[in-house]
């Protein structure tokens, strides 16, 4: 079985517009990425503690289902942040003889743990809402509750801004999971404020329980989003089409490279792994082929500084495809 190569006219201008680098794994040197993720996860844990303690005190004074929903969400945020705090530090360790591909998937396992926490909390909140819907008891200290929730929104927005910057810089899936938690928490706070105001200043006392129901559904949606991110890395999903196109173009920037075939990519925490075959003129010496491969690696490392790269030189025109045929993809080749 032969595999059609990626082809590029050698006469084409090798300059190209590169895709947006923000939010992509493997772009920063591992040390820089680790420093950013360590700091942002520590900040997330601190904010989680503040939100959880503050909302616990607030719920004890108001007995609001909406505040309770937000409290449970903040509790999940804190435990999820602790999980990410540990995971990013473990994932940043250097590969060694025992883990030659590194430990990057620790971030994905942290995300799976967060999904489990979210689903558990959503189930608990649904039970609480069912119990509270028929009570219709008036809320107390509504003004204090609304003021406190506004404060919680402000500090959550500040954290989201910091997390967004960290994701743009590192592409960390653990930080993405954290940000999904806190983004949901921010909207939770906003809806709780609306529910408190409606319940306190209108006859619609049931609005507070309705907010709790909405938050339970929002938690389940958040779990789905985080699960998709974790699934992609745990199952070694290919990088995006933009990233693969960039890899091919970088490899073929040298006109002596006839084609790129058998390209495989995957992300693992802060790292990415790239392997490919370069089709070269069969008359080249081994030394010349080695020089072409080294220069291709250097170009790729310029854009993917945390990449593990494996390139196999191959004589152009040879129809033999290396490896187990089970792993040949019907979708290949993609165009550069």
Produce a short descriptive summary:
This protein has 336 residues and is an alpha+beta fold. It has helices at 30-62, 65-91, 106-132, 142-170, 173-201, 207-234, 241-251, 286-303; strands spanning 6-7, 257-268, 271-280, 307-315.
Secondary-structure blueprint:
Blueprint: E1 6-7, H1 30-62, H2 65-91, H3 106-132, H4 142-170, H5 173-201, H6 207-234, H7 241-251, E2 257-268, E3 271-280, H8 286-303, E4 307-315
Parallel strand pairs: 3-4
Antiparallel strand pairs: 1-2, 2-3
Helix pairs in contact: 1-2, 1-4, 2-3, 2-5, 2-6, 3-5, 3-6, 4-5, 5-6
Protein model, in words:
This protein has 336 residues and is α+β, with helices and mostly antiparallel strands. The protein has 2 domains: 6-21 and 238-327, Cation efflux protein, cytoplasmic domain (Alpha-Beta Plaits, 2-Layer Sandwich), CATH 3.30.70; 30-234, Alpha-lytic protease prodomain-like, CATH 1.20.1510. Helices cover 60% and strands 10% of the residues. It has 8 helices and 4 strands. A 4-stranded mixed beta sheet has the order 1-2-3-4. β3 (271-280), α8 and β4 (307-315) form a beta-alpha-beta unit. α3 packs parallel to α5. The two termini are 22 Å apart.
